[in-house]
Amino acid sequence: MFDFTGRRVVVCGGSRGIGRSIALGFAQAGADVSICARGAEALEETRSQMAKSNHKAHAGSCDLGDAAAIKRYIEDAAKALGGIDVLVNNASGFGATDDEAGWAVGLNVDVMAMVRASQAAMPYLEKAGAANDVNGGKAGASIINMSSISAMRPSARQPPYGAVKAAMIHYTLSQAATLARKNIRVNCIAPGSIEFPGGVWDKRKTDQPQLYNAIHKSIPFGRLGHPEEIATVAMFLASPLANWVTGQTISVDGGQLLGA
After folding, report:
1. Catalytic residue among 21, 92, 118, 147
2. Is 147 a catalytic residue?
3. What's the confidence (pLDDT) of residue 228?
4. Domains assigned to the chain
């Protein structure tokens, strides 16, 4: 469906779940891809899967709560790929508790990792935007931020998580307005409840079956989402098909918000 041959994609938080599916999707579509995360084993497993597509596959260990580590990783990724055309900010600290710890991890990883990675990647994105003018039918450069439908409704269960995801949506708007003249499009995806082995909802199926069943029942399509369904939207937003799309947040939730 997509051809990203010659495009260079960086996925922050790309070793598991949604990030992994996004990285593999771009790699399978011909892109050179770099991913980062903390867990070495999952990082290498995903990198080796990307490499099967016979394009550049780079991975770097990075604590996305560490500003200096993010800067180092982005520079390493740009060097390994020869530049950056697409940046995907997918990291989350999953701050749930309404206390100092819950807010700190959400602000530092969800929000500030997005800000820091975007700033570190900006020289490369600006160069890519100048070389690929969207008015000429090319994709330009692109930033994709990963929010959540939790940003769009109140949550007594995890207040910090919804609030920081809402901040990501607002920052997406500001980035899009600021960077449009540089041919850098900025969009956001708000996934609903996504299930994959070892993920949050996979664990809640066992640990909190009542909550899992309630969420399952609330989704009109009768199931939780799959990471690949988020990856497809990310690829669309980075492709020439979305040349006229910027500053948008797309909910990918199987209608989950309809029952909110």
Report:
1. 147
2. yes
3. 97
4. 8-196+228-254 (3.40.50.720)
127 a catalytic residue? no
Q: Looking at 165, 193, 212, 239, which residue is catalytic?
A: 165
* 165 annotated active-site: yes
- What pLDDT was estimated at residue 133? 65
pLDDT for residue 138:
65
**Active-site choice (148, 150, 193, 251):** 148
What's the confidence (pLDDT) of residue 249? 98
Q: What whole-number distance in Å separates Cα of residue 121 and Cα of residue 2?
A: 24
Annotation says 161 is catalytic: yes
Confidence at residue 157, expressed as pLDDT on a 0 to 100 scale: 84
pLDDT of the residue at 208: 82
Q: From the candidates 73, 161, 171, 212, give the one annotated as an active-site residue.
A: 161
In order along the chain (260 residues), what is the average pLDDT of each group of 10 residues?
94 96 97 95 96 95 97 98 98 92 96 98 96 68 97 90 97 98 97 86 80 87 93 97 96 89
CB 120 within 8 A of CB 128: no
